[in-house]
Design a protein that fits this description.
The complex is a heterodimer of chains A (about 575) and B (about 290). Chain A is an alpha/beta fold and about 575 residues long. Chain A has 18 helices and 23 strands. In chain A, helix 5 (about 155-165) packs antiparallel against helix 6 (about 170-190) and helix 15 crosses helix 18 (about 570-580). With about 290 residues, chain B is α/β, with parallel strands linked by helices. The mean pLDDT of chain B is about 95. The chains are: A alpha/beta (about 575), B alpha/beta (about 290). The interface between A and B is large, with 73 and 58 residues. The complex binds thiamine diphosphate, iron/sulfur cluster and magnesium ion. The site of iron/sulfur cluster (SF4) has 11 residues of chain B, from loops.
């Protein structure tokens, strides 16, 4: 068998509580530091113990966007892993398992003879060296690296970073246990394993999830207040920000519910600080009245909606892009909002900064629409350039005339943005009013006032559009045979499909709609009219973006690939679909 | 010391109150403006956050920074504003439906949290603005437009609830006694923490049971010296008094750390005073490499 260098997929499966995610995260870091590109993805049920959890780490020499379904190394911590995933293993691949805990019968692996079974006494190795049960994972990690013939020293630094705050003893213990797993495979596996790691020199890269990137982007963008109520898959934004509060001095508030969260964020923004809230669809439902309140009072606000499959509680720990129409129209009334839909950690980072800038400068509400796949998966990512993450302030009342008490904060202005005063500021007194209001903010029912305020709010979207510039992202060669039209994390799967199609000699490109509102109608029209074959790729049942495109451009994509089983698109699925339609 | 001598009419706006003639809201409005005049605040010095209801309509009649929020959601807006700018003086006004019904969850958690704001509830035992439906404090058996055969549920006792949920300043006033209410509001403002003042407020249009004269016959003042407001069990006893005799005054008070005092990030200065110029997250980014 030919040797494959620096390209393979590793998968681990076990019960919740087995600690497999930590192991996957360490491997992602190890391979990234080895100069390779990684993406990891986890599947887990909404449980704390038991159930079936998996984590995939896929490695490549080039930038990788979405993992394949197949894998070459399967670490099985329980029988279910073997039964469910043995069929995905490439010929020549291996299952690593502990035969003290698990007996693999031929029927469990579909009688396959083209894969190896490698029994490694995970538990015995760990306990002989004085480790706890959970350190079985560490043995598996060492064993996996031995199969890949990776230099062992790759492990040491990552162990230091992962366990450093638990003390030198724990770090040493983990290194010794990994070493024992590594040595066990080296002396017991006599064949050559077809997949190999050869570390490369590469500039420093990070491994980061969408939520982490977003939390950091918000911070670099001047976020001072974040209120939220935990909900998968948005919770890790709150957790990350809460952990960093002592470092950067912002405040996080775990609110009593999402209604409180959004209103807390509005209150803080009204008082003058950059603030945000985050949730998933269910929590966003509770925030919708608050969204309208921010719009009516023209209070800057950023809301993250990390989607998961609905309706209702749906599939709490899985992924979908089913909330597009919902967030576009959420809350009563007819008013504008901005919706940004980053595809990857890099966009999540820079767009978070931009969201805070837009909210503040234009007194707007910006919804950042992500999903579980982007929020919780990790990618090897080039370091962020902080000089490109600039805070742009604006929209504040400066130097009101001496002696002035009242200020017409809702007076008309050419672009709809009337500078806002902050409570406590002399010369700026007004009332922010959820009722329709006069320029001073007092309740009014006159038709003139009503029309003026509706139009004032609407105008701001045009101003935002001018500020944003191009809000579609095009990738791949012009004049391709196929154009994927997509948004959010589905873009990652399309990018991966592009790499695969290129190898097959098929030219494809991507139109990613980064901002859903204001909708980039001209840019989208141009691409749709000038493409040979457009394929809409969306992670939902009804093709919501497709409908939006029709609404704004009158145009329809030539074909639709939709998926709504809670999983992201596997690149193979997109490739197969392309084969069918061209 | 007040900068200039203020009169309560200095806090009027261009809008004349739209309440029904004789409504208890007038008394609360007057007491509030008097209290603020006594304190000598400038209109830009303070923020009043309002809920939705007849009570919330006061947003148009008080000369100050105002935020007229959603029905039931005034408290979280006020708490968010306080956490952003702890130097700001914040008063929250709402109704019984607004604060004990729609926003009941926020009320309970605000009591636990003890953020330093003042919360005045216009408790008229009815939904005024929506024309006379049952509220959480309507007496059992009383017919209302939404409960024509009489209210089935027991009423909430907001004062007892506030004591139970960890309130650090729990008071009850009467809209018919503006002078007492003015003092209660000042004491509430002076209290370091979440100060709750439940104001018995006749609704002359929709509540023909709890009228001015009904209250007048029942309310009595807790005398400082005779009643000690620092004892929680005694406070419960007082709080539960309802019927022939209804206590007014400070029912319970204790000094506890405010929420913002215990947020380490707020020790040095308010969030609003933090500069945005020098933010640099590169140290944290390095941990991801
Ligand atoms: C979400 C929502 N539900 C219902 C209403 C309608 N509404 C407005 S005020 C009100 C009740 C007001 O009663 P209360 O809070 O006791 O105030 P009051 O008018 O008695 O001062 C209701 C139900 C609303 N504005 N918003
Ligand atoms: S309806 Fe009742 S509470 Fe409302 S203004 Fe009239 S009297 Fe006052
Ligand atoms: Mg009422």
């Amino acid at each position: 068998m030919n040797q494959v260098i620096n390209r393979f997929t590793w998968k681990i499966g076990g019960a919740a509580g087995d600690g497999i995610m930590v192991t996957g995260a360490m491997l992602s870091k190890i391979f990234t530091r080895a100069g390779l590109w990684v993406t990891d993805y986890s599947e887990y049920p909404s449980l704390i113990r038991g159930g079936h959890n998996t984590q995939v780490v896929q490695v490549d020499e080039e930038q990788i966007f979405t993992h394949d379904q197949g894998n070459e190394i399967l670490v099985a911590l329980n029988e279910e892993t073997v039964r469910l995933h043995a069929s995905e293993i490439s010929p020549g691949g291996v299952i690593i398992y502990d035969d003290a805990r698990l007996k693999i019968l031929p029927a469990m692996i579909g009688n396959r003879e083209d894969i190896d079974l490698m029994a490694v006494p995970f538990q015995k190795i760990a306990s002989d060296l004085g480790g706890k049960d959970i350190m079985r994972n560490t043995v598996a990690l060492g064993a996996s690296l031995a199969f890949l013939d990776a230099p062992f020293n790759l492990i040491e630094g990552v162990m230091q970073d992962t366990f450093g705050d638990k003390g030198e003893k724990i770090v040493k213990l983990n290194i010794n246990i990994a070493r024992a797993g590594y040595d066990f495979v080296k002396s017991n596996f006599k064949k050559t394993f077809p997949w190999l790691i050869k570390p490369k020199k590469q500039e420093t890269h990070m491994v980061i999830s969408g939520n982490e990137a977003m939390a950091l982007g918000l911070l670099q963008g001047g976020l001072k207040f974040y209120a939220a109520y935990p909900m998968t898959p948005a919770s890790s934004i709150l957790i990350t920000l809460a952990e960093l509060a002592p470092v950067y001095g912002h405040v996080t508030k775990h609110a009593e519910d999402e209604i409180a969260a959004v209103n807390l964020a509005i209150g803080a923004a009204f008082a003058g600080v950059r603030s945000a809230t985050g949730t998933s669809g269910g929590g966003f439902c509770l925030m919708t009245e608050g969204l309208g309140l921010a719009a009516e009072t023209e209070t800057p606000l950023v809301i993250v909606n990390a989607q998961r499959p609905g309706p209702s509680t749906g599939l709490p720990t899985w992924t979908e892009q089913g909330d597009l129409r919902f967030v576009m129209h959420a809350s009563q009334g007819d008013f504008p909002r901005v919706i940004s839909a980053p595809a990857d950690p890099t966009q999540a980072f820079y767009e978070s900064v931009r969201a805070l800038n837009i909210a503040e400068k234009f007194h707007m509400q910006v919804i950042m629409l992500t999903d579980k796949y982007l929020a919780e998966s990790h990618w090897t990512t080039p370091e962020f350039d902080l000089t490109k993450a600039k805070i742009e302030q604006g929209g504040f009342l400066e130097n009101p005339p001496k002696g002035q008490v009242f200020y017409q904060r809702y007076a008309d202005s050419p672009n709809g943005v009337t500078p806002r005063s902050l409570p406590g500021q002399p010369g700026g007194v007004f009332t922010a009013n959820s009722d329709e209001h006069s320029p001073l903010g007092y309740s009014t029912e006159s038709s003139e006032d009503r029309e003026l305020q509706v139009e004032k709010r609407a105008k701001k979207l045009e101003a935002v559009k001018a500020f944003l510039g191009e809000t579609v992202v095009k990738e791949g060669p012009e004049n391709s045979d196929v154009t994927f039209v997509t948004w959010g994390s589905a873009t990652q799967s399309c990018r991966e499909a592009l790499r695969k199609l290129k190898v097959m000699g098929v030219n494809a490109n991507i139109l990613q709609i980064l901002y859903i509102l204001p909708f980039p109608a001209d840019a989208v029209s141009r691409v749709l009219k000038n493409s040979k074959k457009t394929i809409l790729v969306e992670n939902n049942f009804s093709g919501q973006l497709g409908g939006v495109i029709r609404e704004f451009t009158g145009l329809k994509c030539d074909a639709e690939l939709l998926k709504y089983d809670g999983r992201p698109f596997w690149p193979e699925e997109i490739v197969d679909f392309v084969k069918k339609v061209i | 010391m007040p900068k200039t001598q203020k009169d309560f009419n200095d806090y009027n706006t261009e809008v004349k109150p739209t309440w029904c003639p004789g409504c208890g809201d007038f008394g609360i409005w007057t007491a509030l403006r008097m209290a603020i005049a006594d304190l000598g605040w400038e209109p830009h010095d303070f923020l009043v956050v309002y809920g939705i209801g007849c009570s919330g309509n006061m947003a148009n009649f008080v000369k100050s920074y105002g935020f007229h929020g959603l029905h039931g959601r005034a408290l979280p807006v006020a708490i968010g504003a306080k956490l952003a700018n702890q130097d700001l003086k914040i008063i929250v006004l709402g109704g019984d439906g607004d604060g004990y019904g729609e926003g009941g969850n926020h009320f309970i958690h605000a009591l636990r949290g003890n953020v330093d704001i003042t919360y005045i509830v216009h408790d008229n035992q009815v939904y005024g603005l929506t024309k006379g439906q049952m509220s959480p404090t309507t007496e059992q058996g009383q017919p209302t437009s939404s409960t024509p055969e009489g209210v089935i549920e027991q009423p909430i006792n907001p004062v007892a609830l506030a004591v139970a949920a960890g309130g650090t300043f729990v008071a009850q006033g009467f809209a018919g006694d503006t002078l007492q209410l003015r003092e209660l509001i000042k004491q509430a403002i002076a209290h370091p923490g979440f100060a709750h003042v439940n104001v018995l407020q006749p609704c002359v249009t929709f509540n023909h049971h709890n009228t001015f004269s009904w209250f007048m016959k029942r309310v009595y003042k807790l005398e400082p010296g005779k009643y000690e407001s620092g004892n929680k069990l005694k406070a419960f006893e007082k709080a539960l008094e309802w019927g022939e005799k209804i206590p007014t005054g400070i029912i319970y008070q204790e000094i506890r750390h405010t929420y913002e005092q215990d947020v380490s990030e707020l020790k040095k200065q308010s969030l609003l005073r933090q500069a945005l110029k020098k933010i640099d997250i590169s140290k944290t980014l390095a941990k991801f490499s």
